[in-house]
Amino acid sequence: MSENVLKSLGTFLMQKDTPKVKEEMTSNLEELFQNPGCLSYVAELKKAIFHIERLCPKEITTPFKGNCLEVSESGKYFIFGSIEGRIAVVDKDNKEIIQDISLEGGSIYSIVLFKGDKYFASAGKDGIIRKFDFNTCEIVQSFVGHEKEINCLSLSVEEDEIFSASDDCTVRAWDQSGYSRILYTHDKAVLCLDRSKDGSILVSGGADKKVKFFDLVQGEIQSVLNEFTSSIWAVKLSGNLKYFAAGDSNSLLKVWDYQTMTVIKTLTGHTKRISHLEFNLTESFLISSSNDATLRIWSMYEDKSELILTGHTDWIKSFKISQDQKYIYSIAENFKIMIWYFPSFDNSCRKKQHNSPILFMCYSKPQNFLYTADTKEIKVWDMRTKVVTKTFSLTHDLSSLCMNSDGQCLIAAYTNYEIHFWNIDDTHSQVKVRHPSVIKIMAASQDHSILVVGDANFRVTVYNKKTFACLQVFRRHNSVVNALCFDKPDAGENKILVSGGADNLIFIYRIRHKKSVKFAGHTAPVTAIGVSRNNELLISGDEIGSFKIWNIKKEICIKTLNSHNDKITGIYFNENSKYFWIGSMDCSLSLWNSTSFAEVTHLCTKGPISMFCLTSGERDIITAENDELNFLPTILGGNKFFIYGPGREHYSFMKYIMHICEGNEMPYDPEMDKWIIVPFEFNALHFYAYFNLPLHLKQALDRNSPFYFSKSDYSPLQIAIQRNFRDCINVIIKYIRLNVQQDPYSVGFLEDSIIKLNELGFRGLDEFYNSIFYKTYDKLLPKFCDERIELPLVIQARSLGPQTKDFFSKDQITNVGTALTFIQSALKVDVVLGSRNSIEFLESLTNSPNDEIFRTQFVRELVLYKWKYVKWFLIPQACVYFTYMLVMSYYLIFQDGENSPVTVMILFVLNIMLSSYELFQMFLTGTMYLQDVWNYIDMARIILCFLYVSLIWENYNESTCKQVLVSVTFASMLRGISYFRLFDDTRYMINLLSEVFSDMISFLILLTYSTYSFSLIYFIMVNNISEPQPFSHFVSQAYLLNLGDFDTEGYGLFEWLIFFFASVINPLIMLNLLISIMSDTYSRVKTEQELADMKELTEMVIEGEYLLFCRRNNGKKTYMQICQVEEVTNPAGTPEEKIAKIKMRMKNIQEIINNKHEETKVELKDSMGGINSKLDEMTTLIEQISLTQD
Fold first, then answer.
1. How far apart, in Å, do the first and last CA atoms of the chain sit?
2. How does the entry describe its membrane topology (predicted)?
């Protein structure tokens, strides 16, 4: 990645909003997104922020309260009037006031620009219209005539007349000379005014609750509307006179077809007086502002929920749309002008075609048709156009409806007990069978073989769909059957049927074996059920809004959730199995993560959701709400940028995120956590992790906020790991660790991050491994087994939680015998020997800075489990080497190392075998091969052995051959030491040996130095009293003195003195120092024996797994589960156990103190940042006040 792109990553969010910076940001982002070397989550996060910043309103702070607003023709300047009676001109780009005029007439209510921005006119409380020169802001002309305040101004098409509306009940026209004429009057104050684009119509609204249309061509009132019950404050004609809109003081907003003057829309949503209205140029949208501090955008073409623009905190008095229709400019009494990017509607809409509540809804994927039905008729919808194409009238009331599995016809059940097949091309249905009682629910299997019905007599009946012969009747329920569903076909066959009833029970039927299993746990009638696409999970919802998640294989309830407060009406699993939807009569549709079962977000609807479905490709979500259909765009899988959440406060969420991105002090807001940004699938927690906000992250997790993977499969944890934000990592890991037994599925977020976590080796990693390997308290598991069974039993399971059948057969379970306990892991890891993920995980363990993880039971059991199989791949090599050593010993002892062709050939062959293994290992492990010192010894041995054999075969000098043979023997014996690592009793000693050599390095340097020093002294001293010797002779003498071998013949007093010092320093002090070092090393190694032994064993497992190169891509993640003898614990415990517990307690206390210290530091830092921010704001405000006074 280029340096410029990296720089843009770091500075993108800190840039100010200037055109130049925005242009640079856009170009940098384009380069960023096109760069394949950039992490996907970074690109997506930056792109999301770019969109949010674009959509977030820009603010211009004014020193007084705005009342009316105009935009210059060039779009460069704002001109506005205020409550304080001032008129100001603002440079839009620089956000600065360049002109400020103070008038004595009071509040300014209206401003108009004309003559190409040459002039502008204002009017207000004093009833005078003033004409100003735009460039100089000097008054050119005054128009006097109104007796009371003027509320609104408008211009003629030619801009040669000004129209005014006043509290004196008149609407006047003013010419350029200042002469006015009364066009018409209202019974009370005229509050608003608008002119048609062609200049033919003038419309006004007043306190008399009337709307009057004045024909400017004919000079007379055209029509009067009396449809409001309160004062009318806003009127607007669309550009082509297609629509007319008006709003009153009671927040009622109506839209008429102008040609027919019929009301086509009554828009509710505002809570206070409507203040201003505008249509866009295409007449597709109506924009309204209100004293409730919101702007709302309404669709004129379809029945859509309005878009709400929030940001002002006081009455919005006026707004304008930019000429290019891309921006909305608004002004309010909160001292703000806001610039809004014109938002776009999604594809949602509402359709009403039924005259009574919709009772049934089916979707045909092959035809892309939707079928909806009430009791009297069935309607067919073409989903491409979202219109009804056919309507079928019914002769009897429907009791149930479902789609045939081929998607070509409907299966309908009537209250007369008949089941009909109805093809869309036919006008009449075909009677197939008559059921004994009223059918309440039906379901057709996807394998096209059976039809299942649940009836009012509490039965579940299975019919052959071809012959309609009754195959099976299940009478397990004690009340009405409310819900039916099948599993997903396995090998083209549906094997499981699930039913839920008003008796609060769920039954799973094995269709082929005609057996059933009961699931109990609901406290209210079961109303909806759904099976996951992998047939592992069942979700059931009941009448009070609670839903349960069941593991089908284990037949247990995994989790119960109570997020809804009314009847659950539908359950749908997404095609990618990443999410599932829950529909409810509480007017909400919630989205959940399938891994952690955390709520991602929920959508609020206008009416209770009686049922819902998703269309082909999950492009649309369709909900039935009373007699209406609500077509919602899918949140997931699209490519357009949108923000979805539990309310309508999109702009509050965007503002919250932008404050985080800009590094501003922003208190944590839990309501912001349930919003999702698509198509990236980010939420606030991803931003907390990216911008290193551990306190926000902690509060979010404590409130069970949504924690899930983004579209690019990055969770907040992975983002924190990538950016190496250890505080955020610790917060997440600690939360998971403390809640693992209550919510073991949350550990699933760590599966793809565990290797990186090992490599980071953060504090508490060992505690995390201890927490995810815990005792299972499942009453369904056996308590005893046959004493002849050898324990422990270790298995690797695909699903969480031990199952009896995985450990024992039925005859092995007893009521007495060996007491059992079960331990399970909540983390799935790859245990397939030789797989890439398995090797990477083990290597991350050995490379982890936190060696304490090797003391944890999870790591120990995992390594021992692998070692049980891997050792059989290493033992053959050890046997070959043992054979090599035996042959070498025989050659040295019985043949005296003399040339024996047979023995030398055997050594040569064995050496080829061993060297081939080494070359194979080198090829598989690459540079890692060079990291093991034993491999260097092995290569030296191999080379020396080949050299010796070559010398023997070439009849080389015997002396040289002997020297090489000695070297081969030494290297072979040294390399043979490493094979003792294969055995538990000697592995510890090998580690001790290596540690001793490591600790002796410093000592050997000092010993060498002292030996060399005394060699020099003896060289000078002894050469003076005896025959001269070379220096090497005295080096050997000094070394022998270290070992207690010396010759003092001919020594005088001085020589004896030197000998005394030499014998004290080297043999006594230095060697005793060596003994002390070795003793310390032994104590340390003894203390860490368990840790070192396990680490050594892990390295050998890695070595063995590398040999299984054919299984690199055969990885499979599983849970580890152990059945072992239940230990009788001794409360007192051994002294070692007590010490270990005390150490663990002290470690926990230290961790708590460190965490509190870090939290306090962060809080102080945040507080100081907040104080500095407030000081900056105060300084800026003081400077603005000073400039205003100047």
1. 51
2. Multi-pass membrane protein
Q: Which helix (H) or strand (E) holds 419?
A: strand 418-423
Q: What's phi and psi for 102, nearest 5 deg?
A: -105, 120
Phi, psi dihedral angles at 247 (to 5 degrees): -135, 150
Contact (Cβ atoms closer than 8 angstroms) between residue 407 and residue 367: yes
Confidence of residue 1089 (pLDDT cuts 50, 70, 90): confident
CB 651 within 8 A of CB 659: no
CA-to-CA distance for 537 and 800, rounded, in angstroms? Answer: 12
CA-CA-CA-CA torsion sign (950, 952, 956, 960): positive
Per DSSP, 1068 falls in state I
Question: Two tokens at 671?
Answer: 């309501």
Cβ contact 1104:799 at 8 Å: no
pLDDT the model gives residue 540: 96
Angle at Cα 526 formed by Cα 520 and Cα 532, nearest 5°? 85
pLDDT higher than 70, residue 1024 = no
pLDDT digits (tens, 9 = 90+) for 611-644: 999 998 888 899 999 999 999 888 887 788 888 8
77 DSSP β-pair partners: 91
Q: How far is CA 799 from CA 796, 802, 827, 858, in A?
A: 9, 8, 11, 17
Sheet-wide strand order for 327-332:
58-61, 336-341, 327-332, 316-321
Give me the torsion for CA of 364, 366, 367, 369, rounded to 10°.
30
- What's the half-sphere exposure (Cβ side, CA atoms, 13 Å) at 100? 12
Residue 743 confidence (pLDDT) above 90: no
Among 421-435, 588-602, 694-708, the minimum mean pLDDT is found in 421-435
Reading the block at residue 1134, the tokens are 């051994």
Distance, in Å, from the CA atom of 1111 to the CA atom of 927, rounded to the nearest integer, reads 21
Residue whose tokens read 């060498």: 1008
Contact 298, 288 (CB under 8 A): yes
Cα distance between residue 538 and residue 557, in whole Å: 9
Before 792, cis peptide (omega within 30)?
yes
CB 334 within 8 A of CB 313: yes
Pairing verdict, β 243-248 and 253-257: antiparallel
Q: What is 343-399 written as a DSSP string?
A: ----S-EEEE--SS---EEEEETTTTEEEEE-SSEEEEEETTTTEEEEEEE-SS-EE
Whose tokens are 């008429």? That residue is 256
> In whole angstroms, what is the distance from residue 140 CA to residue 642 CA?
49
Edge-to-edge strand ranges of the sheet holding 398-403: 398-403, 409-414, 418-423, 430-434
With a CB cutoff of 8 Å and minimum separation 6, the contacts of 364 are 370, 371, 403, 407, 408
Of 1085, 1093, 1090, nearest in space to 992 by CA: 1085
What is the C-alpha to C-alpha distance for residues 852 and 90, in angstroms, rounded to an integer? 65
What CATH number does domain 524-638 carry, 2.130.10.10, 3.40.50.300, 3.60.21.10, 1.10.10.650? 2.130.10.10
pLDDT exceeds cutoff 70 at 17: no
What gap in Å lies between CA 1107 and CA 1110, rounded to an integer? 8
Residue with tokens 């209250």: 415
CATH topology identical between 58-341 and 524-638: yes
Measured CA to CA, the distance from residue 539 to residue 746 in angstroms comes to 18
With beta carbons less than 8 A apart as the criterion, state whether 417 and 438 touch.
yes
Domains of the chain: which residue ranges? Answer: 58-341, 524-638, 895-980, 990-1107
pLDDT per residue as tens digits for the range 251-298? 999 999 999 999 999 999 999 999 999 999 999 999 999 999 999 999
Q: Could you tell me if 577 and 534 are in contact, meaning their C-beta atoms sit under 8 angstroms apart? A: yes
Spatial distance between the Cα atoms of 526 and 540, rounded to a whole number of angstroms: 7
What are residue 711's phi and psi, to 5 degrees? -60, -35
Segment 236-257 shows an average pLDDT of 95
Q: For residue 931, give both structure tokens.
A: 């990291």
58-341 homologous superfamily = YVTN repeat-like/Quinoprotein amine dehydrogenase (2.130.10.10)
